[in-house]
Amino acid sequence: MKNRFMPENGLINVSRQQGDCSRPVHQWDGVPWQALSLLCLALLVFASCGKRSSLEAVVQAKPESAAAKFDACGLLTGADIEAIMGSPLKETKSSGAANEGMRVSQCFYTAQEFSKSVSLAVTRSDPGSPVKRGANAYWEEMFGRFRNEEKEKARESESDKEKKESLREQREKGKEEEGGVPPKKISGAGDEAFWIGNRVGGALYVLKKDKDAFARISVGGPDKEEIKIDKCKALAQKAINRL
User: Fold this and answer.
1) Are residues 98 and 27 both part of a single domain?
2) CA nearest to 119, candidates 232, 242, 233
3) Least confident of 14-18, 88-92, 197-201
4) pLDDT at residue 1 greater than cutoff 50
């Protein structure tokens, strides 16, 4: 096989002698080297542009909002759990969700004695949602009417009190039979607090107005409702002070 370089036209002439089948003629044989160089350069530019556009997409992506990054697990410490629940903290597990303009960050604090574990959820407005809804307004929807009932109780005269109490007991009995228990107003926690009890325990809801947020906290264990409320109040106060 003869290889001859011809400088006058820049071609590489590759020919085969008769009977030489050692390799096939390459598909680029006879193509000017300048053309091959330009083709390679174009491929490199195309590849680099693809990488740059991918990188730009990452750099220009909007950073995650502060509300999305918020982790409720940072609001209570192991020392808090051990001091109030009487069992060391084993681990925490966080989760989150967003819906209808609200964002909820939840943390489950698993105690070594599992029945003394704690569940905490913090609800705040979601600035990234097209639905504009504040946590304070949502709180009002949930508990505003029950606050008004408490005020009505304070204004009632003794004569009217017995009649209204009887009617109220009937309404509440009906709610209990339907599976719903009206919230109980609790003092000494946050700007306002309500306890919602159920057959297995209950949860304390605590409002933090200046942060436009509220917390829901529940605890495990065999304690009576009054003791559970006290534990929830102590834990909730520590949590909302760290918001």
Assistant:
1) no
2) 232
3) 14-18
4) no
Q: Choose one of 60, 75, 105: the last residue of a domain.
A: 60
Tell me, yes or no, whether 118 and 227 share the same domain: yes
**Closest CA relative to residue 67, chosen from 119, 120, 104:** 104
- What gap in Å lies between CA 25 and CA 27, rounded to an integer? 7
Tokens of 91: 């681990």
Model confidence at 173, pLDDT cuts 50, 70, 90, reads very low
Dist. CA 232–CA 11, nearest whole Å: 87
Residues 36 and 154 both lie in one domain: no
Quote the CA–CA distance of 132 and 176 in Å, as a whole number: 34
Q: What is the pLDDT of residues 199-239, one digit of tens each?
A: 778 999 999 999 999 999 999 988 999 999 999 999 999 99
Q: Residue 102 has which token pair?
A: 């609200």
Helix (H, G, I), strand (E, B) or coil at 93: strand
Residue 232 belongs to domain with CATH number: 3.40.1000
Pairwise CA distance, residues 205 & 201, whole Å? 14
Question: How many separate domains does the chain show?
Answer: 2
Cβ burial of 134 (10 Å; 0-12, 13-18, 19+) is middle
pTM over 0.70: no
